[in-house]
Amino acid sequence: MRRVDGEGPLIAQRRMSDGLRTVSALVLDVVRQMYAAYGAIDLRWKDGRPYLPHPGVVLIDEVDAHLHVSWQQSIGEWFKVHFPAVQFIVSTHSPYVCQAADPGGLIRLPGPDEDVPPEVVDEKLFGRVVYGSGDDAVLSDFFGLLSPFSRRAESMREELADLEYDVAAGDADEATMRRFRELRRTLSSSQATYVEDASLRARRRETDGS
Q1: Distance CA 183, CA 198 (A)
Q2: How far apart are CA 38 and CA 40, in angstroms?
């Protein structure tokens, strides 16, 4: 294969990104294995999209490797549309790949130091990973990330919470107010940030009141 017809002009394989080359090679390998198993390729179309009806089981390790986040989010559904009779068993560290999982299809593998068997996640955790945002997923028990923010951002958010407490109490001088406004401008990014900050302030008030 030398060229690929994507959503636009033909792309020379040598000019593809690593992710696109990886996916192209994977798709071709699945088609090749189907041809070897069934002796012919029964290409069909539905809603303007080609698909192969042949059943099979495909194992893919680290499907998110080299893929842009937008591809990670769409790769699972893409395979399900174009190979609807295939069961894909996929390992990944990407919450966006997990969003394509079917009910009962998310399995948590134990870490190197965990003496527990693999387990299918419960319905509540499945809903958080599949139907929530990427932040919802990575902050869940399935991924175990403590915070979606960098360490530097966490430190700045802690400082902002301290300054906001002083401002609300009427104890802030001019320098404190300048720093407070600077941090608010820097850290004002998303709704999730505001929710996290509000939670942090609530915990701080509870601690100070106890």
Answers
A1: 15
A2: 6
Q: Token digits for 18?
A: 């690593």
Burial profile 111-132: b = 16 or more Cβ within 10 angstroms, e = fewer: eeeeeeeeeebeeebbebbbee
Residue 35 structure tokens:
């041809």
pLDDT, one tens digit per residue, over 9-56 is 677 777 777 778 888 889 999 999 999 999 989 999 999 999 999 999
Burial class (CB in 10 A: 0-12, 13-18, 19+), 80: middle
Cα–Cα distances (Å) from 54 to 44, 48, 57, 82, 100, in that order, read: 11, 19, 10, 10, 20
The answer to whether residues 41 and 75 touch, using CB atoms and an 8 Å cutoff, is no
Compute CA distances 150 → 96, 147, 155, 187, whole Å: 19, 8, 9, 12
Domain boundaries, the chain: 3-100, 151-209
> Please, is 149 exposed, middle or buried when counting C-beta atoms within 10 Å of its C-beta (0-12, 13-18, 19+)?
middle
Residue 65: other Cβ atoms inside 10 A? 14
- Measured CA to CA in angstroms, residue 210 lies from 112, 116, 160, 202, 205 at distances of 40, 38, 22, 12, 9
pTM: 0.69
Residue 10, classed as helix, strand or coil, is: strand
Largest CA distance in the chain: 79
